[in-house]
Amino acid sequence: MTYHSSADDSSAESAVTLLCYKIGIRTSKYLMAHFSDKELERLTAAGQLLYGAEDKLPVLGRTAWPAELADRFFADGARSMPRPEYVPVDPRSAQEAVAAARKLIHGDSPVHRWLSRLADTVGDTALLLSQLGTQGIVEPGMRLYGYPQKTLADGKATALELAARLDGLLAAFRDPTTLAGNRETFSADQVKTRLDQDLPKYFADDAPRVEVTPTLSAKATAGKNVIKLRANAVFSDLDTTQLLQHEALVHIATGKNGSRQQRFPILGEAHPGNARTQEGLAVFAEFLSGALDPQRLKRLADRVIAIQMALDGADFIQLYQYFLDVSENEFEAFENARRVVRGGVVTGGAPLTKDVVYLQGLLEVHSFLRAAVQAGDPSLTRLLFIGKFDLADLDAIRLLRDEGLLVEPRYMPPWATDLRFLTSYLAYSVFLNEINLGSVLARYRDVFDFLQPAAEIPAPDVTS
């Protein structure tokens, strides 16, 4: 029997808002789905076609910079524009796979809509990678990742407005010693030792390996089963926890869990279509574990502001100077500027907008989890670890799980396996959101008047 979605199901999936998540959670309890064997074969085949095409489209790998670009930049006194080289991808094989998959996707269930969105993602990813090093990456990049002026989960505020607000609120805490004093730092080898001790506690014999390498541009990266650390990087006291919670217990864990889904192994793949939810979940994990300090949160906000600057015409040197002004760390400034322009052009106007997903995703994941508690079903948290997907596809994933077509996640962080703390925190968060902060500020006005507001560093005007 063919599955037909209800009107409530359709409205829940149409927008990522708190209200729609509530509707989605409440109505999904009553949904039943029965796919014929032939229809299931078609859907599985479509997923396999998209999986095969997506696996050949590694955005971050294709847009990476070699470490020597930073060395040359600083050797020249940070005055000359870096000149990264990219190898564009021929999009035709991916486009053929997408066309073949679309011929198999005919229906109105959440699973059909999920696969249709995956087809859109693969097509746009192939288009983006075919335009590396040109202005042509902007449009597919914005469709894939969003952009700073796109509205957030409430349908009103934008990522740029949230970033500017956070940037102002956190400006007083640029110096990490303000809150924590002088903290111990660690070398890459020391971080590796700690991770090698911690990872088997969660992954047993399937623990990802940790490598120290001199060739990374970023301070640390993670792949399907590896965490790489740059040999000369200096790590803070929170970085090990952040790497464990963000990279290992979210990105690597969801990848391993998704790879166990025999019918839909694409759930084990990181791609632009699931980046927002994946990064939002990972940053939320940092927050819950106490690893999200003000400098890290401000850095995420600053990247959104810088992406808008680049869209408005700022070049790499201007972006580097902006990040240097807000961080006072030369390498961090270079790395952040690199993240903004990677894959595009260094002379301005064509950034890769990926880094807007962190704040967008954090807000959407947090809003969804609050709605889950308010709806009385915090166990939906565990569903987020069944593999890699966007929150818009949650109904499809739950439907497949309930039909026995997906297996439960094997690897999850402690806060997702034991939901007591998360449920208490989110329940309090729902209540706290109803408090009028303006009234609280007014009550303590005489106290707060003694505090001098931190001066905000304005973004340079690059539009004139």
Structure, described:
This protein has 464 residues and is mainly alpha-helical. It has one domain (7-178, 248-437). The chain has helices at 7-14, 18-28, 37-54, 59-62, 68-75, 92-102, 110-130, 138-145, 159-170, 177-180, 188-203, 239-259, 275-288, 294-311, 316-327, 330-341, 357-374, 380-383, 394-402, 414-417, 420-432, 437-443, 445-448; strands spanning 186-187, 209-213, 220-222, 226-230, 234-235. The strands form two sheets. It has a three-stranded mixed sheet, with helices on one face. A hairpin with a 3-residue loop joins β3 (220-222) and β4. α1 (7-14) runs antiparallel to α2, α7 packs antiparallel against α8 (138-145) and α11 (188-203) crosses α12 (239-259). The termini are far apart. Residues 1-33 and 454-464 have low confidence and may be disordered.
Arithmetic mean pLDDT: 87
How many strands, what sense, and barrel or not for the largest sheet? Answer: 3 strands, mixed
Shape: globular
Backbone CA Rg: 22 Å
Note poorly predicted spans: 1-33, 454-464
Total discrete domains: 1
The strand line-up of the biggest sheet is: 2-4-3
Alpha-carbon distance between the termini? Answer: 61 Å
Give the SSE order as H and E letters.
HHHHHHHHHHEHEEEEHHHHHHHHHHHH
Range of strand content: under 5%
**How many strands?**
5
SS class: mainly alpha
